[in-house]
Amino acid sequence: MANEIMKIVGASLPRLEGMDKASGSAVYVEDLYRPGMLHGALLLSPHPHARIVSCDTSRAAALPGVRAVVCGSDFPERRVGVFVKDEVILAQGKVRYAGEPVAAVAARSLAIARAAAALIVVEYEPLPAVLSIDQALAANAPLVHENLERYVFRMPARARRNIIWEVDLAQGDVDAAWAQCDAIVEGIYETQAQYHAYLETNGVLAEADQSGNLTVWASCQSVHHVQTRIAEELGLPMSKIRVAVPRVGGAFGGKHASNLHSIAAALALKAKAPVKLVLTRTEDFEMQRSRHPVRIHLRTGARSDGTILAREARLLFDGGAYADESPAVMSFASLMVRGCYRIPHVRVHGTAVYTNKLRAGSFRAFGNPQATFAGESQIDELALKLGIDPVALRRKNLMQDGDYWIGGHRVAVCSAGRCLDRLIESVRAAPPLPPPRRERRRGIGYSMLASICGLMGTSASVHLRGDGTVALSTGVVDIGQGSDTTLAQICAELLGLPIESVSYGAPDTAVSPYNWKTAASRSTYMTGRAVAGGSNHLKEQILRHAADMLESAEADLEFRSGGRVGVVGVPGRELSFAQIAQHSLYVAGGPIIGVSGLVFDGPPFDPKRATVERFAFDNLGVYIFGAQAVEVEVDEATGQVAVLRAWSAHDVGRAINPASVEGQIQGAFVQGLGYALTEEMVWNDGRLINPSLAEYAVPGIEDVPFGVHPIILEEPEPTGPFGAKGVGEPALSGVAAAIANAIAQAFNGARPRRLPMTPERVLDAIEPPAGQA
Amino acid sequence: MKLHLPESLDEAVALLQTYEEARCLAGGQTLVAMLNANLLFPDALIGLKRIKSLDGIERKADGAVAIGAMTPHRAIAESSQFGAAQAILGEAARGIAHPPIRNFGTIGGSIAHADPAADLPTALAAAAATVEIYGPKGARTVPVEDFFVSYLTTVLEPGEIVTCIHVPRGPDAARCAYYKLSRIAGDLAILSVAVVVAIQDGICTEARIALGGCGPTPIRLTAADRALVGEPISDRSIARASEALAAECRPFDDFRATARYRLRVMPRIVRRTILSAAGRA
Amino acid sequence: MTQPERLPVALMVNGETQEVLIEAEATLLSVLREHLQLTGSKRGCNQGVCGACTVLIDGRAGRSCLALAATLAEAEITTIEGIRDDPVGARVIAALVEGAAVQCGFCTPGMVIALTELLRAKDRPDLAEIRDALSGNLCRCTGYQKIVAAALTLASNGHGE
């Protein structure tokens, strides 16, 4: 079937690696073994804040079977970090959170390594700890970092005492606008630390050869990023470090970096042997990362007709012991808290502070869930005060095509309103549920959401192999979202090849073209563009070779599906990709390789439209929109909330693989459900008291309705591959607000303003205890 | 650590006494998790799986059932041996964790662990069960409520093993209900209520109410039970029972909920569970 | 550190008896992964909560991280590596892959085992039975929707034995 039209883009092809994963043969980092491999173990700090008086590793080192012990002094004294260079890989001088790695051991067996770690004697002098945002900001607060002024910052951040970074965004005249408002609502919204809870903990296998060259297999979101960090953390040139990645058992932002990588590398260099170091679940909870706990003070005002005039937000981010991605997460939340509405007067002030707790960092949707919980809860509160239907109030104020986001980014295609239309259509079409049991009430709540996809650089290469199949290579790590398949689909579609003819190379810094990381909903949009560019570059060269071989002008040639090039109008006169490849490899022209790379370089903030100060990144991405609805049932006796069904509408530009897109929406929604209702890392006196999956409540199948309905809109993004945009993160952001709004709908406006909305907090909201009414 | 798999109870008891710190291994669903988390460092584990007499549910002529300590939760959840009052065990067992845990976790292991937020201890208290124990001094039997001493602590003396749980037939015209409030399905309870009531001609003739998650052990009070007896189940009688129970509740704050919340919702769940039991034919 | 005592144990895994020399506290999961190189059973929590290590022990789904291998000399153990050649197991795997129910894949082997146990016992389970059977298997990627949908497809086709 020579001219069969390929339909690979837009088809829900099964995952390339699906059978391997489902049948247990896919290999993850803990499944790897190397000859002579040692096992690593860590010693973590038991104190949230303490001076290290001494660290005696002699007994550990003397234990038979121990091959290497490292502690803080084995690392360069220079501090590292992306935005603030404030971190060391193993504690030096003092520990700043309970769970901070202090020392590590490599030994012949895991049991010996753990026994040795327990023999390391660290003498601590406990210091007063800063355990909350308020404590961090108190006038006489102990300092988490005494020498902040000596640290290197990526840009001026107004850091002082326990303040890491401050951001200001403003447009219009908020102070004057309040006087024109007929209704003003104001509230404080608080969110918790959420744990990523990828099913696979962080782990790494690092190997050093006799010349000090490192090979690192990491469960991670980017081989290039891990390579960059190890180079900085160990003070080595990148040429000495190769990073590769096996299959990754989920990441969600929690595997973009880990102290673990450089610790294992240091052990491997010291032992001159491979060292596998995989975190226990409790270690992963205690030392890795969380979503930021945030307190948002928000105020919104409108005219009596529902026109929103002003919004003011103060965001306080608890960054934990190290700055990590706090400046970026806090900046992004500050940008998003206005919401996808036309609000002429806006002022946002964001602050991130240090505390003696686990560092908070990047986590799917990156500050947006916190901002959206506050922002979209308050839209419903405003609607109630104005006596306007919450959906109608949203419609009246939504941004339209060509409007500007605060900061001055123009949003050419603003599909928020169309997402809402499709959402309402689906909600209305849904059959009514049987009436609730006694003592239960139902409500439906809505939330809008906006996000971006883009950021930084990426690239792709496409090699034509001798048999006419192609080898696609990018730096994108498939952390479960399906990018291997999606990117291969883009390549196959453009080349007219069946998907089986495209292989996706496992990312490896030795061979893969650069990619920043799997983050920011960017793989399909950003690397998809590079794959399209590389595929088209390959086609140009194939055409040139074919023209030589067929002795025709390129203009007279056409691509035919199945991997062939022929002379227009002459059906028999054609060459297969295999013939062209053979010719290139053995006769003339040389190997055919298509390459393409790009960096997101959209327009910067526009100082004429808004004040934007100390915003942690210059360039973001294209804006994406969605709308969500959740129907809940609340037990009015206990305050327990059950989600009965939900709808989540997203403009994805173009669904390259619709089933994968649906999976992203559903998965993000359910992670948002856990965030909204059950998940919370709890510290007591600076120690995490629920660091296991038995104690930290991740929703299981019975806590989630079979009825999370994805709704896909396809409004092509002109710059995206086949018009595609990202979808990995947004469906998480609106869930908490939609649930809070559903509760409020059922209980005359009573609502929790703190996450997670546990039965206790819901009960306190719907039936305030005596004296608090 | 040593591991033994004795074939008889006497052998198991003898082995338990051989070590300073030996533990019985039943289904392992809690014990092995604790070992994995380095929360326990026993010298030896005495596995009970080869002692055939410990497994199975037997219904006696008088309607009582004897449940071997090694009977897995799944067998209890699916058993057809229970009468109307005993059925509370099946209901509670069906809510324990999830199927793989129910396949291997045992009733003996559950009560010997004595977590007040677990399901079976509370249900057994409402069912007026007794615990048969075998040890160096022979066999003895204790009412289940006396079996639990405090948080994770029982009356078991060194060398003693739970062998069987006896559950009486219960009153005529019995009905039961078990309610578990938990953060997520299969989690340990924030609070649980087990109720067995007998209702004849509209009058409650007997009642047993037990609470889980409201103190270091399951809570059952004769005064609370009496508050229901001798009259139809009503809001008033339920309120009296709840008041009596509230005076005995000693819940703690933990990451599942605060003590304050548990005290607040206890009467509501007691009410809901009693009404649910009473409404059940 | 004193050398821990090791016990010789013959384990019947996927129809084959294998001799291993293990410590008393060795879990079945660690023996499968480290001694027998059967790495399809995953260690997600080592606490029996996540379900990624689920195997069949005498036909019943159980946590290999909560079973001490030395107690299993008489048991018949089936891991994901054995289930993929089982007629029901193979259909479960295919249904999950075709139904886009596999994302990161770390939970999937455990899901396959739990569904295989269910479908062997019941040809056409309903939604509630499917949810109960999978209630001990956490998934952080899919939101469970496509896993349930794939299981329902199997059930409606009567794909048990």
Defining key terms:
heterotrimer, B: 281 residues, alpha+beta, 5-stranded antiparallel sheet, 4-stranded antiparallel sheet, C: 161 residues, 5-stranded mixed sheet, 5 strands, 35% helix
What is the rounded Rg of chain C? 16 Å
Low-pLDDT runs of chain B: none
- Please tally the helical runs of chain C, counting DSSP H or I stretches of 4 or more residues: 6
Average pLDDT rating of chain B: 97
- Determine the fraction of residues in helical runs of chain C and give it as a percent range: 25-40%
Structural class of chain B: alpha+beta
Overall structural class of chain C, as computed from helix and strand content, comes to: alpha+beta
Contiguous helical run count of chain B: 11
Percent of residues in helices of chain B: 25-40%
Main sheet record of chain C: 5 strands, mixed
The termini of chain C sit apart by 51 Å
String of helices and strands of chain B: EHEHEEEHHHHHEEHEEEEEEEHHH
Number of strands of chain C: 5
Proportion of residues in extended strands of chain B: 25-35%
Describe the fold and architecture:
The complex is a heterotrimer of chains A (773), B (281) and C (161). By secondary structure, chain A is an alpha+beta fold. Helix content of chain A is 27%, strand content 25%. Chain A has 19 helices and 33 strands. The termini of chain A are far apart. In chain B, the strands form four sheets. Chain B has a five-stranded antiparallel beta sheet. A four-stranded antiparallel beta sheet of chain B has the order 11-12-13-14, with helices on both faces. In chain B, a hairpin with a 2-residue loop joins strand 6 (130-135) and strand 7 (138-143). The relative contact order of chain B is 0.12. Helices cover 34% and strands 26% of the residues of chain B. Chain B has eleven helices and 14 strands. With 161 residues, chain C is α+β, with helices and mostly antiparallel strands. Chain C is 35% helix and 17% strand. In chain C, strand 1 (6-13) and strand 2 (16-23) form a beta hairpin. The mean pLDDT of chain C is 95. At the A-C interface, helix 1, helix 3 and helix 16 of A face helix 3, helix 4, helix 5 and helix 6 of C.
